[in-house]
Amino acid sequence: MATRTDFGPPYYKDMLPPIIEKNYGKWKYHERVKPGVLRHVAESGEEIYTVRVGSGRLVSTEWIREVCEIADRFCEGHLRFTSRHNLEFLVSDAEKVEPLLAYLNEHNYPVGGTGHAISNPVHTQGWIHCHTPATDASGIVKAVMDDLYEYFVDWKLPAYCRISLACCLNMCGAVHCSDVAILGIHRKPPHIDHDIVRAKCEIPNVIAACPTGAIRPDPKNKTLTVNEEKCMYCGNCYTMCPGMPLADPVGDGVSIWVGGKISSARSAPKFSRLAIPFLPNNPPRWPEVTSAVRNIVETWARNARKHERMGEWIERVGWERFFELTGIPFSVQLIDDFTLAPETYRSTPTFKW
Amino acid sequence: MTESETPLLDELEKGPWPSFVTEMKRAAKKKESAHDLLRQLERSYNDRIGHWKHGGIVGVRGYGGGVIGRYSDLPEEFPGVAEFHTLRVNMPSGWFYTTEKLRQLCDVWDKHGSGLTNLHGATGDIILLGAPTEALQPCFDDLAEIGFDLGGSGSDMRTPSCCVGPARCEYACIDTLEVLYQITMEFQDELHRPMFPYKSKIKISGCPNDCVAAIPRSDIAVVGTWRDNIQVDPAAVAAYANDGIDIQEEVVDLCPTQCMHWDASTKTLTIEDRECNRCMHCINLMPKALAVGKERGATILVGGKAPIVHGALLSWVVVPFMKMEPPYDEFKDLVRRIWEWWDENGKMRERLGELINRMGMRAFLKAMNLPPSPAMIRAPRANPYYFWDPEEVK
Lengths: 353, 394
What we know:
With 353 residues, chain A is an alpha+beta fold.
């Protein structure tokens, strides 16, 4: 039998709840009813309630079947997910909203992540299923969100706050524009297995993969060498060549980045900036990471103005004030020395003491 | 009481946030592979290091992408995950499902795989996590039966994604779900058969709030916008003021272009629309009173990416305004020309943004036949090192 190919995803229109099909493109406004609950009203006057539920991203088919049962009971068999691993129940019957919330509460589904809250962290696979991780992903996110749960289910922050995690510099979660980014990093150069390099690697491609030019050919031995002083442990060479692993129980850990933003509201999208260059991998609950994230979030929450995102607050008060207020020590790793470094240096004496 | 096999992971079953460990244990009751995944992860928590071998090429007939090979580096200790590959399954636009469709998916995955999934992966696909090599083709065949195709992986067009758009958002300036469906169908070959210098991502957001992170995360970003005036309902503005919003402080003072004026005595908001840069802040705060304009389209930005290889980039404006109307030929044609130029000039593993950086935006605009515009820059250059085409110097 010839396999059918190139037929594409299920057609989205077949997946839409009838009320959405009917009011498609004709929504008039929405309101935030309470944390995790949105109400959208169409030009027709019809309304739909959205109840947002955080998930742990890694779920079993049993969980999917359970949420399908909930959707059958309260949402006529329709549901959707968000780009940040949330589940959304779409309720067209206003009478069913409170019973749904009661059911979700009783069965420990966290409702929240809308408005001035911490949204569900986007994250990657980590030790569970990735071949280049410097840390686990799900474990840290679970620990951080257990700790910051109150900020997911309630509106206690000055603005929206996005936390994201990527388990290595590949950044599959593209966490580089998050209010708080947690990023797995290595701190040791690759330990080269020359036999594997000879057997499995295209040496010119490995050399080209190095952003700092730290890799040189060793034609005599049909392998390559790494100038360890130039290596900043990005792991790009390992992606190209299995003979250059970097993972190391002591070298690997987590860095914390702050102040990034995706939306263009008020100010342009911006990158997160390095705040803490290294915290150890300390499973199962990474206490150094959870307390660092809580400190940053709560320092921002105490000092920012209403609607001021983390990065907007930092730009207003200045980085020198950010480090003072958070008590985070300033280290030389925080000063850029990659390709666009000078753009980040200060050229005026108008800084704060 | 028997001692737990996973004392470290058990700690992550405590606390209010949903536990992935609980999910793994549920799958482990039914599937030996999920059980071994749990045990191997416990080992990683002890060793503080991952236990997956480097890469591995596996696939299904007719496709070069969509399946990620994964092999345990401890296959004797954890035979259930000796081969534990990922299938990336293309999700429907906007991640909408019927429960019937999701149950069909569960049936297929319970039959062939570990029973563990990500809803969804970072790029947006349904991630089916863990099947042995021999199960891949039968699993795909069964997925095809229920209408699910594979997504992208490797050096191809990665599965594009979009925000909820007009399905449930009054901010949507373009039909993000339809644009997504159209380009996904148009570029099936590019999605399934890696032949580019590196990955290429397309994301479509309906407004500048950019809920799918198109600007930071995609080589080609489509962001809905408008060209005329913000629609204002004056009575609704006054109602927000009566309802407790401090319009001067929370709306007008935070407007980045200072194009608004609030008269508190008459509760009147005036907007100098020509000076508005459509950032969405005021509309976000008062969606009942303010709405996006009527002359809608999209800004196209290119070059966004995560750090590997030469550092992260945010996408840059290259088409300030494009009408986005079916069948979206103008956009599809631009995508084709961008890929052609990138394919011709890009080095291996060089993303579009890095290529533009290396060749110069000037070269890109010329190749695309796009007119330069101040909308493309934050500031003009501050150095005198610029080029002239000899044709221009006569």
